[in-house]
Amino acid sequence: MKNIDMxxxxxxxxxxxxxxxxxTVIRGLRKQYPEIDITLVxxxxxxxxxxxxxxxxxxxxxxxNRHKGLNGLFNLFRDLRKPKKIDYIIDLxxxxxxxxxxxxxxxxxxxxxxxxxxxxERRMVITGKNKLQLRHSVERYYDVFxxxxxxxxxxxxxxxxxxxxxxxxxxxxxxxxxxxxxxxAPYAKHDLKTWPEKNMIRLLELxxxxxxVRFWLFGxxxxxxxxxxxQNRIPESVLIAGTLGLDEEIALxxxxxxxxxxxxxxxxxxxxxxxxxxxxxxxxxxLTGFGAWRQPDIFAIKIPIEELKCRPCTVFGKGxxxxxxxxxxxxxxxxxxxxxxxxxxxx
Length: 347
Prior knowledge:
Elements (H helix, E strand, L loop, with lengths): L6 E5 L4 H17 L4 E5 L15 E3 L9 H13 L6 E4 L4 H12 L4 E3 L4 H8 L10 H11 L16 H7 L9 E6 L11 H14 L2 E5 L6 H9 L4 E3 L6 H8 L4 E5 L2 H8 L4 E4 L19 E2 L25 H4 L3 H10 L4
Parallel strand pairs: 1-2, 1-4, 2-3, 4-5, 6-7, 6-9, 7-8, 9-10, 10-11
Helix pairs in contact: 1-5, 1-10, 2-3, 6-9, 7-12
């Protein structure tokens, strides 16, 4: 084990769900190694994920100006060294930017450990050569800290906690008794990860037909127009996207009865908030290590690989359906998902 009187620099700037997942290991690290100093390099809009983790320094790069391009990375290197000497680099990202930063720190004598993303293993899942469960991204994060000499014990959640101010701001939103409060994040970044909108609308109609319910609609800013149209077709719904800050969204998620989401950042956020999370999968699959953390496997609803051997066809959702019919999503009818919710005793 390395000297605990040291300063760790942890790097993970995107994507949103992946940054959220770092809370699992950083929370445990902070608790189990209280003497070390930790600086996390990430984007400013992700700061609410870490509000409840004490003694954690956050550094927000300015990739649009001061830290843009190669010269910007030299500026970032200098800026990170200014406040306090850095003893070790933990790279949870392993992209070009972080590679260059690691190289610059290496030239000045600072060692590093880097995540093994298991790219070859994931390709084997996609090509059908292996259909076994791979290590989760969270476990890969833990591996990096163990390699650095800081093994962290896996702890129970929730891992993302809202601020007291956020809890107060949303406390009046769910004041109606007898309602089933369900979060819905109907969209994802790529088509291969998005259930057809008509299917989600029909599912919510089936739920509303049998239960007294309120649906809370989550999504990114770029999805706001779609969500407004979606909300107009669901009378029992409230639009959250674009109306609340991230800290408030987390506070609201933590109070839901459960969340229904695609393979998306909202899936990760809900699970990390301690909320039961039903995820709907198409071209991607939890096998590749990106499932909702610590949620039961049966909460991931998908067409079995044995029935549709082309699944999964992608790790991140990029590309187009090679069959041309998006069977992985279209075969998954609203009735199948509704029956799953009933059988799982979620509703």
